[in-house]
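User: Reviewer 2 asked us to show a designed sequence for the structure in our supplementary figure. I'm pasting the structure tokens here. Could you produce the per-position amino acids so we can include them in the response letter?
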């Protein structure tokens, strides 16, 4: 018994639950038959090994030049997933797909495999099955690179029917069932490869600059290094409350204190906050610290990291997004000051001395609600409202309010601001960089103020970290530091949303 052709599993016109259940029952019966036929030898529907000698990509590379109705004279053994098939009287056609999406046609003919083997193919092979085939590499009469099958076996029996690969999967199916997305969609496979290439490029650039990669704790007794609400858990072994880290910053700085002058980490952060097109509660983060650097030198490094990643993914500083838009990451990126650009946008000079009453008036005029007691927060919200949307090219926004950046060194020549930048691309923040605060006395004062805010109910305020302060007291050299979301880097390189750049995003 053969199954009906699989159809789309998406919400608009897919198989019903009853139809899926019926197909699953048919496939389970085939599984039982394969296992029974194998007997004590084992395998059957799921053999431990099949005798592959090559891969589909390798065959295409070696024999893709064959002209129509031409034979190579070479016999190979390869495996792939059946993604299309057509059975006729004496000849069956199947398209086998490799993990990278490359495909080859398998031709199972009565003359080559015999009546019994052909009948078993028709009865047992379904869409989605992994099959092994051996035979000569040929080009069909229509010029399709093919394997003229002389022997075959099931490599893994699929119990669930595949979605219709001719139709587009809806976004919900793509995110919740990423394995189907990877089978069905070239862009999904490309996203995985692009991400791997970008991360490898980051590590290569860091290696070329003499940086050392380390790993810091994800379970922490005190959260810090960023203003964010943490996830809280409990350790039975230590009988204590622990936090999933919101940033690796405070540990990486301890490494700099210890003499690892150039250090970086690529790993996971967790923030118990909202999820949208640019935010995920769990995300991959890069942080790096360079002794005897500052926010200018770390901006130079960040630009190089991103431009090198663009070359690794696209072969050019001009990247092409999934929708066909070209985005230029090349050249020297603009650097603008937050207060100066805000003043220019609203036609009024705004400085760190601008009264809170005036900032509230400006926020009300713009229809902005700022549920925060800090003047700097008003400045940042006003800047985002009036300036951010006008940034087209990658831009470093420099010199932030001091009261919103408790881990940053005060500006060397401008009062009321700190040496911090945010890098904006595509209208969102991609990275941030600092001249790091290394004075333990001032750092304690900043932490005390943060603790006051936390006591007043600010869930994102930092806690006073005595162990980190003690490390600073042993002396940390002048340092530049940066952080960048890996998921957002892929957004900048591909034009995709954050749920597309994360292989398995968190969904309800």
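Assistant: Here is a per-position design you can include in the supplement:
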């Amino acid at each position: 018994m053969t199954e009906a052709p699989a159809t789309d599993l998406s919400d608009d016109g897919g198989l019903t639950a009853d139809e899926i259940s019926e197909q699953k029952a048919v496939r389970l019966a085939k599984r039982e038959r394969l296992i029974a036929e194998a007997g004590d030898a084992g395998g059957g529907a799921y053999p431990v090994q099949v005798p592959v000698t090559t891969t589909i990509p390798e065959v295409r590379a070696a024999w893709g030049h064959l002209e129509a109705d031409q034979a190579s004279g070479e016999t190979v053994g390869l495996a792939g997933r059946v993604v299309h098939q057509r059975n006729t009287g004496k000849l069956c056609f199947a398209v086998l797909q490799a993990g990278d999406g490359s495909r080859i046609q398998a031709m199972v003919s009565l003359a080559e495999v015999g009546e019994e083997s052909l009948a078993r193919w028709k009865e047992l092979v379904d869409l989605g099955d992994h099959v092994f085939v051996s035979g000569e590499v040929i080009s069909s009469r229509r010029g399709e690179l093919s394997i003229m099958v002389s022997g075959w076996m099931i490599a893994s029996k699929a119990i669930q029917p595949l979605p219709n690969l001719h139709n587009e999967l809806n976004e919900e199916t793509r995110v919740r069932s990423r394995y189907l997305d990877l089978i069905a969609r070239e862009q999904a496979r490309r996203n995985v490869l692009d991400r791997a290439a970008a991360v490898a490029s980051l590590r290569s650039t860091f290696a070329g600059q003499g940086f050392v990669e380390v790993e810091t704790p994800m379970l922490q007794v005190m959260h810090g290094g960023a203003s964010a609400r943490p996830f809280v858990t409990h350790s039975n072994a230590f009988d204590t409350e622990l936090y999933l880290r919101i940033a690796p910053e405070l540990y990486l700085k301890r490494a700099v204190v210890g003499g690892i002058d150039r250090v970086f980490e690529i790993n996971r952060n967790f923030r118990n906050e909202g999820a949208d097109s640019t935010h995920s509660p769990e995300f991959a983060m890069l942080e790096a610290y360079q002794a005897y650097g500052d926010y200018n030198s770390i901006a130079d490094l960040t630009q190089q990291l991103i431009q090198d990643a663009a070359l690794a993914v696209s072969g050019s500083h001009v990247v092409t997004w999934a929708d066909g838009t070209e985005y230029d990451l090349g050249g020297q990126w603009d650097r603008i000051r937050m207060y100066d650009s805000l003043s220019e946008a609203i036609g009024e000079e705004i400085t760190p001395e601008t009264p809170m009453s005036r900032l509230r008036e400006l926020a009300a005029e713009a229809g902005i609600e700022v549920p925060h007691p800090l003047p700097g927060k008003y400045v940042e919200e006003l800047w985002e409202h009036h300036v951010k949307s006008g940034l087209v090219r990658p831009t470093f926004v420099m010199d932030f309010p001091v009261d919103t950046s408790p881990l940053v060194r005060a500006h060397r020549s401008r009062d009321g601001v700190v040496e911090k930048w945010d890098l904006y691309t595509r209208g969102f923040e991609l990275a941030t960089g600092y001249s790091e605060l290394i004075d333990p006395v001032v750092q304690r004062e900043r932490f005390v103020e943060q603790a006051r805010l936390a006591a007043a109910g600010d869930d994102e305020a930092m806690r006073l970290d005595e162990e980190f302060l003690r490390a600073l007291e042993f002396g940390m050299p002048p340092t530049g530091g940066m952080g960048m979301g890996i998921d957002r880097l892929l957004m900048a390189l591909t034009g995709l949303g954050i749920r597309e750049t994360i292989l398995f995003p968190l969904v309800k």
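For the response letter, you might also mention the following. The CA atoms of residues 94 and 141 lie 15 Å apart. The chain has two domains: 20-156, 184-333+393-500.
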